[in-house]
Amino acid sequence: MGRIDGVHLVVVLCLGISVGWVCCQDNDNVTAVYIVTLKEAPGAVYNAEFVVKTKPLKQDGKVNRLDKPLASNISRRGWYNGHNISRYHDSILREVLKGENYLKLYSYHYLINGFAVLVTPPQAVKLSQRREIANVVLDFSVRTATTYTPQFLGLPQGAWPKNGGFETAGEGVVIGFVDTGIDPKHPSFSDDSSGNPYPIPKHFSGICEITRDFPSGSCNRKLVGARHFAASAITRGIFNASKDYASPSDGDGHGTHTAATAAGNHGIPVIVAGHHYGDASGMAPRSHIAVYKALYKSFGGFAADVVAAIDQAAQDGVDIISLSITPNRRPPGIATYFNPIDMALLAAVKVGIFVVQAAGNTGPSAKSISSFSPWIFTVGAAAHGRVYSNSILLGNNISIPGVGLAPGTKNASMYTMVSAVHALNDTAAVDNMYVGECQDPNSLNRDIIQGNLLICSYSIRFVLGMSSIKQALTTAKNLSAVGVVFYLDPFVIGYQLNPVPMAIPGIILSSPDDSKILLQYYNSSLSRDVITQKITKFGAAASISGGVKATFSNSVPKVMYYSARGPDPEDKFLDNADILKPNLVAPGNLIWSAWSSHGTDSSEFLGENFAMMSGTSMAAPHVAGLAALIKKKFPSFSPSAIGSALSTTASLNDKNGQLMMAQRAYSNPDLNQSPATPFDMGSGFVNATAALDPGLIFDVAYDDYMSFLCSINGSSPVVLNFTGMSCKTSTINGADLNLPSITIAKLNQSRTVQRTVMNIARNETYRVGWTAPLGASLKAEPMQFFIASGERQVLTISINATANSPVVTFGKIGLFGDKGHTIHIPLSIISKNCYNTTNT
After folding, report:
1. According to its UniProt record, which residues of this chain constitute the active site (predicted)?
2. What distance in Å separates the CA atoms of residue 270 and residue 786, rounded to the nearest whole number?
3. Where are the domains of the chain?
4. Would you name the residues annotated as active-site residues?
5. pLDDT tens digit sequence for 673-724
6. For the domain 741-839, what is the CATH code?
């Protein structure tokens, strides 16, 4: 059954990050995996190829590129290469742990300099005391967090033609997926392009790992690389080779789904349970895919494996990294930014890689975001308007809505309904409380059920995966039932049902109240023998309308209830983070995409080539694919420039022109919604076409992120340890970063921030307008400016508190160009200690 992604729950043991800090367990003899970081800078620091100068180049008076790679003035250290680094790590381990048992799992040398090792807590303490070693951190767990969405996003009419059509959309761009692997046999990843062969991306150097589960020939010009990382899981003894596959092969389905969403081939028929649901396409159908499997069906994943995957992806030369994963809990320490995954991703951004991460499925509560670093582009989930409606018409003329990707009863004819609990055969166990779930055809009487609609109970066991719709349908088919009607057990409260594929007429009633209406009608229509009380006649009848055909709503997009909310969570080491999260929202609900032939993550789609899934995991690859279109058009855009193009052009309204809504409750979400705020939707809903012509760009350099980190109290040694760079005096905080948003968690009387925009389009004159947040006044200077192509303009925004406010209030700034470009800047503040209003 389609479900909200992110069900792998693994207990986090412990995590902390500071110089020489180690998390110890009670038993000194219990081994655990630790991630060890050295003080020597990683290889990316010395990689001259990726050092860039953020100054616009002009050719014939026009901007040619935003950033052009230049020769570095930093010479490579003679000893640096992966092999030498690994040997250096080995020598440290031998010296520190002389004669003791340990197992090194990985050497990290490109994005961070360090290794993962299996040792005891006392051994970890020894390592932490070594002068070359900066941090020793206990490994922690992570979890996983389309046929219509290209049309909904306007790709066929807008973004694709701007990239030369779908035939070339994203061509040459490599997207790296850190996920559960891939099914290489799926047609979404074939390079058989009917006379339009895929090019070989010359900048990519990855390999295709060959195993029994992933044989030679699995990779091609579309799927250009595939590897797997599972050393941390294997050392814990939880790796199940029969289910998880020691290869890039996808035993879950999640990785195949996300890869196809971003970059699956165009025009692949979506056929599920014998029904055709349209043709699928990725957002950038000509982009290349590189797979770095670090998550698994049985247990989720671990940071040590994820960092190894990210490190390898960067070395291989991917342009974009898509992460539909989140940590199982917010990492504590000197500041949450200083964890191995986020630090590796910061180094990836340094070498020019755009990083997209799912926001997490922990909404709708505030500050529930799982991806919070400003260098990561965080994506929430929104509905996109395609709905598969189903209903059942009872014999008493009452119609009840439900779900189910199922055909209707023939010619809308009425059929007699028979409950499974009233159709037991002589051998059935009368006390079997689960017989009503229709999982065992041997317990039911075929003569009673044949030609009728079978009523089954949808209990909590279906939610937990102990029972399945697929098995109930098999039971009904074996007993020659016309179709199946599932009523919701009263113990299944607030659970959101997604459409489920059914080959025969069927429906699942989606609320306990509607289920009561069905059962009351059914029970009142039974005729019984006066003496024996045996049923003599089943009098209830119904017809099922069917839910194969989609309907479309204009009251979308809307932010889904499960999408994690911002702002950046509170951190005891920071007075305020002042970072807007999520960055934006994208389609994430009820997404059709490719499914692995081995995929077991959703039992209802087992054996199918496509599956419908929901979650921020589905939203992130939409943005990764759209980023590939931007990278194709602007090959030298920095990661922050790509993020700026996506953010400043995002939409704030739904298809009806009304303010976008956000669902506020898990139960009955459409009855509990209100206008979306920036903490729900970031800059808004992604606008694929406008993002390819943003007009102005906000750029943030790597050094700016470093200054932000250095401003955190006590961070200097940690920054040095992770990056090899020394901190200078810095007072910059999140609000000072040149982001396309402004967030001030504690506005103390007044605050002035600056933003610098660069014109990547033709000469244009912009007018500046704004709406001030409640409790504040606002002024932007200049109020109008002319900016030539390739030039920069500094905007000064002054914000004054006019009233104290214990809650956040929102405003916005708009830049309106006379050539049609419009740039949105969301503004969020909490006013504290305001001036008297007469003085403002």
Report:
1. 179 (charge relay system), 254 (charge relay system), 617 (charge relay system)
2. 50
3. 143-381+592-648, 389-549, 741-839
4. 179, 254, 617
5. 999 999 999 999 999 999 999 999 999 999 999 999 988 877 888 787 777 7
6. 2.60.40.2310
